[in-house]
Each structure stands twice: as C-alpha cells, then as structure tokens.
Design a protein that fits this description.
By secondary structure, the protein is α/β, with parallel strands linked by helices. The protein has 15 helices and 16 strands. Strands 3-2-1-4-5-9-14 form a seven-stranded parallel beta sheet, with helices on both faces. It has a three-stranded antiparallel beta sheet with strand order 7-6-8, with no helix packed on it. Helix 1 (about 10-20) crosses helix 11, helix 7 runs parallel beside helix 9 (about 185-205) and helix 10 (about 230-240) packs parallel to helix 12. It starts with a strand and ends in a 5-residue tail after the last helix.
Amino acid sequence: MKVIITGGAGFIGRHLARRLLSDGHQVRLFDSFSPQIHGTASPSEVLGELATACDVIRGDVRDRDALAAALVDQEVVVHFAAETGTGQSMYEIERYVDVNSRGTAVLLDLLANRGGSIKRVVVASSRSVYGEGRYTCAQHGVVFPLPRKKAALDAGDFSVKCPDCNAACTEMSTDEASKLHPTSIYGITKLNQEQMVLVATRALGLGGVALRYQNVYGPGQSLNNPYTGILSIFSRLLQSNQKINIFEDGAESRDFVYIDDVVEATTLAICGDETVSGVFNVGTGVKTTVLDVANTLKKVYGSISELEISGDYRTGDIRHNFADLDQARKILGFEPKIDFAVGMANFSKWVLSEGKYENTGTTYEQSIEEMRARGLMK
C-alpha cells in the first residue's frame, strides 16, 4: 500500500515507517520538523536512512495546499501530526488547539471535498482522553472520579476519591467504554481528533481507527523536548548526577509501552481487516510507578543523583491510568511482547550511546518555571 504518515518524522512515525518499508509498502512522510522536538537537526539528520527510503515532504498539517499535494495517490493516512505535552498545553492553548484540532479538520476537509484514493485513516489518540480513568469504590463499585481538588493536593493528599462518597478508591484497568473526561487541553484535543476522524470516515465510507496510546518509550524518542517523556528527562538528569524532582509522592503510575509493541498495534490497524473501525487501547495493561522508573534508571546509569519526593504537582496531571487490552486483543489481534525490564534495558543502552546533552537540565527547569509562573505547577 501507499501510506502517508503525518508527523512522520516523530518518534513513532520513524519506527512505523521502517516497519512498513520492511513489509513492502511505500511510505511518504509529512512533517514540519518542529525545533521543540528535533532541535536544530536537519531533516536528513532526523530521518537518517529514511530520508532516501521514503518520500519526504516538509510542511505544516494546517497548510491546506501542502497537505493536499502530499495526499495525492496515497491509500492510507496515519495521522500523528500533533503538539504533545500535557503541561505545556495548559498555557499554549491556542497553539495546541490550532495544530491538533484544526490540523485534523484540514485533513478531513480535504478528504471530504477533494475525493482521492484514501481508503483508511488511522489517528494517534491518547490515554489522556480518559482523565483519571476507571476506579472501584468499596461502597459504589465502578466509578469514574472527577479531577482531584486543589486543596487536597496542596495538603499532600494525592489519592483519588469516589465522586459519590468522597472515599479513597482503587484504580482499575481502563477500557474503551470508560467515561471520557480529559483533564488537560492536550487530552481535549486528542479526544477531538479521534472523534472527528471516526465521524468523518464513517460518513465518507472510509475505514477509521483511533489508537489510544499509553506512555510510549524506546530508542529514538526525543531527548530535546522537556515537555514530554519522563524517561528521557530522568535519563539526562541522572547522567549529569542532577537532582530529580519526583512529583507528588512518587506512587503515581503509568502504563509504559515499548515502541516495537506500538508499531505492531499500529501496523495491525493499517493492514488488518478493512472492516475494522473504532477505538483501541494500546499499552501493556501493567502499571509502573514514577518512583520505580526513577530508581530503575538510577541503577542502570550508576547515578548518584538525589531523588527528591517533593509533593509538587501539575494541574491536569492524573494519578493512575493503565489500559484494558481486551478489545485490542480480540479485534486487532494485538498482544504486547516487550516487558518493562527488557524495554528499559534497550532504552537506556540507546541513551548511553547518544552521549550527554548538557542543556537538558536547563531546558527542563525552564519548562517547570513556565508552569510555576502561570500557577500550573505547585
């Protein structure tokens, strides 16, 4: 097939492109090569061998003419183009909405009004659409908690409360039928993206799939962007033996899914049964705490960094979320294969091979101060 990947120069896009090429597909990459993600590297430096193996077009997903030209003769669109970063989205609201929501609208408007050869759209969604996700209360059973209250967070109470009785409740895996209530602008735009894609493709008679990725990690992810990816941030600070600020009490958890598993799930969505549409979680179904991540990386790098559990928190952050994979298993045939220990070993080996980035701590602290200055970081 002929597959265009918007945001194709990004972390997942590059790995997916290699997989698709190895499977015999033709791949076109459309990307703006954002400095926040790629730094000052040239497109050829970012893409390496993909610069010649793929058809590469530099452009903004909001540029209607550029995107229209890129879509010519393609059969599948994998829509990755988006601004990412929960914290940053809370104060760069216009940019996040413009790129994520309007950019998706431009894509779908072109498909609706210019026809063409596109048969399927796969959009990268996010676990952030769930907000806190699914919990259980001893008295009320399955519940979907509201965002945690500022007063409780300020007092160091980071637990998630039942919306009915305010008792502490216990996290559960979150399935696709769970309540959708994002707690950040980023999460809102990802929900907006997936809903627009699913509604528009259904109306146009195209295949439409939204993949709700959990926390994706692995070799090749951006080490320049201080707004996303705690594994990258922690790795660089630990290599420089700088203090690590562990937010809340360190017991907050995420579902970390290795890049190869994400590529496998995405490939199944692209190449599988053409009648398959809808939303699917992509993760491991296993939760890992932030403190466990920091300690694991500290040991790997032999760092003497202090891990400071500060009680700080960011507005819009959730406490826990991990994926229920039943639907992805049954319909896509997806089964994650890389456990956290193996994935972390691969990731850290790659980080060490990249050498040190001397400005990582500085840019990360700048991102924290930006949030503090706006009252979004406590």
